[in-house]
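I am writing to request your help with a piece of structural work I have in hand. Here, with my thanks, is the record as I have it:
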Amino acid sequence: MDDCPFCRIVAGLDPAAVVVEREEHAVAFAPLPDSVLAPGHTLVAPVEHTTDLMSASPTSLAATTALAQRVGRAMRGALGATGVVLLQASGADAGQSVPHLHFHVVPCWSDDGTTHWPSTPSAHRHDGDASAALADMFE
C-alpha cells in the first residue's frame, strides 16, 4: 500500500518517522509533531496493512495490543506517567483519519486535569435492547 503513510513507515520509506520499536507483527512510532497529545504520545500499528479493528487478523491484533501494553509500561518507567490512555478509532465516523489500524498510547499525569472520555453521549438511538442485539450476533 504505497499510498498508506503507516505502511510507508513500516517499510522504512519515511525517513522523518521516529520509530520507537519495531517487531515482527507490530511497530510503534511517534505521531506527527502537530498532533502530539502529550510528551511520549506513541502510535502503535500492525505491520500488516489492515484498515480497522474489524478487519485485523488475530495475529496482528494480538501483536499490536501487546506492543501497546509494552509502550504503556515504558511510559511509566521512562516518563513517570501515572496513567495511560489507549485510543482507537475504526471508521471515518469514529474519527479515524488514517485508514490503517492504529492505537494512540497517550501517557497521563495527575496534573493533566483532563479526561480522554467522550464528554457527551451519542445522539444515535437504537430501537430495542442494544446489548441484546450485540449478543445475538454471537449466536
The CA atoms of residues 30 and 42 lie 5 Å apart. Helices lie at 5-10, 58-79, 130-136.
